[in-house]
């Protein structure tokens, strides 16, 4: 098993408030890890720390078994919770921009833009400015931007928010396909039915990982009918 990303004893405070407390997690190559937790439990903060966008007060992160470096970031695909897109540019220009900062050459960018636009069903809308896009279209474009350079590791913060069930299903099919190609994904979600599509789930509550395991193992261990019940039971870690 090759560990692609790990966080060790991660602790984070904002002023006096402890946001993350001694969080440990590791992601193996070819797995989908779901990070599930109520609003405000620290999911986005954790993803940002893993990505190097936020500093932790204690603990360390390892990317591809090394201290994170500029070269390791080339292999990351990040989709932020709020879309980080250039509204005045067209979707094509956004993808072209993100492709170029990832070092793709012009010809390769052109080809990849076609491919990722097809994947997220935006091929016919590439020439529209992003400000003309709906919320769901922006989410899909953000995902396409994260895919453009074929990273090995994806950190996706609520990638399916605002998408209709059909599109959500096709996005999850894509995640499965990425996984089959040995990519590793960490996906934050509030949606319980998405949890069952993950290989492993980490349940985050008040900045602590309450439990980690496959959805089936968690149900068995905690003798519950749904993962949601683990939160409701108030299991302490
Ligand atoms: N830059 C910041 N300064 C101060 N507090 C912050 C900052 N960023 C996050 N927080 C606080 O940290 C806590 C966790 O926030 P975070 O966004 O990580 O939660 P989350 O689980 O992703 O929530 P949601 O599901 O609603 O997106 C919240 O109480 C939030 O107010």
Automatic annotation (TrEMBL):
Domain named ABC transporter: residues: 5-231
Alphabetic keyword roster: ATP-binding, Nucleotide-binding
Protein name, as recorded: ATP-binding cassette domain-containing protein
InterPro entries per UniProt: AAA+_ATPase, ABC_transporter-like_ATP-bd, ABC_transporter-like_CS, P-loop_NTPase
Signal peptide, first to last residue: none
A GO MF label: ATP hydrolysis activity
Matching PROSITE patterns: ABC_TRANSPORTER_1, ABC_TRANSPORTER_2
């Amino acid at each position: 098993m090759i560990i692609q990303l790990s966080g060790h004893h991660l602790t984070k405070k904002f002023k006096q408030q402890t946001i993350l407390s001694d969080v440990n997690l590791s992601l193996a190559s070819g797995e989908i890890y779901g990070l599930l937790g109520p609003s405000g439990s620290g999911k986005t903060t954790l993803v940002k720390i893993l990505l190097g966008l936020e500093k932790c007060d204690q603990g360390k992160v390892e990317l591809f078994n090394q201290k994170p470096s500029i070269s390791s970031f080339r292999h990351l695909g990040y989709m932020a919770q709020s879309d980080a897109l250039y509204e005045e540019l067209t979707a094509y220009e956004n993808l072209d921009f993100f492709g170029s900062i990832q070092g793709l050459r012009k010809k390769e960018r052109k080809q990849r833009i076609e491919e990722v636009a097809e994947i997220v069903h935006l091929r016919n809308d590439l020439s529209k400015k992003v400000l003309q896009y709906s919320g769901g279209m922006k989410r899909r474009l953000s995902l396409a931007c994260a895919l453009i350079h074929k990273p090995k590791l994806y950190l996706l913060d609520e990638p399916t928010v605002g998408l209709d069930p059909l599109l959500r299903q096709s996005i999850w099919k894509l995640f499965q396909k990425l996984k089959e190609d040995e990519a590793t994904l960490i996906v934050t979600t509030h949606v319980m039915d998405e949890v069952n599509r993950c290989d492993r789930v980490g349940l985050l509550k008040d900045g602590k990982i309450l439990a980690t395991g496959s959805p089936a193992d968690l149900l068995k261990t905690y003798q519950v009918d749904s993962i949601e019940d683990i939160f409701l039971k108030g299991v302490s870690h």
